[in-house]
Amino acid sequence: MKRLRLxxxxxxxxxxxxGCSIVKASMVRDDWKSDDATKVKRLAIVVRPAPAANQKAxxxxxxxxxxxxxxxxxxxxxxxxxxxxAPQLSEVCGGEDAIEGVLFLEPSAxxxxxxxxxxxxxxxxxCADGRESWTGQAAGSFPSKDQLLVEVTAVYVKEFGAxxxxxxxPAMNVLRPLLDTLPQPTLTEADVDEKLxxx
Length: 199
Description:
It is a single chain. This protein has one domain (22-184): Rossmann fold (3-Layer(aba) Sandwich). The protein contains six helices and seven strands. The protein has a seven-stranded mixed β-sheet. The longest helix is centred in the N-terminal third of the chain and has 18 residues, at 55-72. The chain has helices spanning 32-36, 55-72, 89-92, 150-160, 165-179, 189-195, and strands at residues 4-8, 23-29, 42-47, 76-81, 101-112, 115-126, 132-143. It is an alpha/beta fold. The radius of gyration is 16 Å and the shape is globular.
């Protein structure tokens, strides 16, 4: 297996007032561009377990991740799952959405003061053989209310209910920098047109 690049403590000052980054580790295979970039484009997102044991919050986090990746990365995220037990790749891959990779997010959120201590581990597994193309981890302490995210929080409260409100801002603040470390796939013109139809 080719050498893996390991990036530790990447600086994301825009998202954190901490001395060290929210992103604790991020690893992309050296052969991503040659082996996976044209083959792992259509993704499913799996969030498990639900943060703070709140199923609705898990649904909100999955939707946040899906929209962020579709807007800020070149992947085509076709579906999101919040299963009670860990699914096999064969249960998620392929199908009518032609899923080629699965982005697994494993969040934990523990109430602390007026917010949450959050930790998220992520991995991108390709459907062909389960090989991990990317792994990452992000963590930090975030308030439940963020003045920069008032409107965004309202959107998810409307979609998933008032119970998710305290967890939306922490989700946004931990997921954005983590997902920014995902590699970029190579899209065809048809892929680009398809991506324009995604939420």
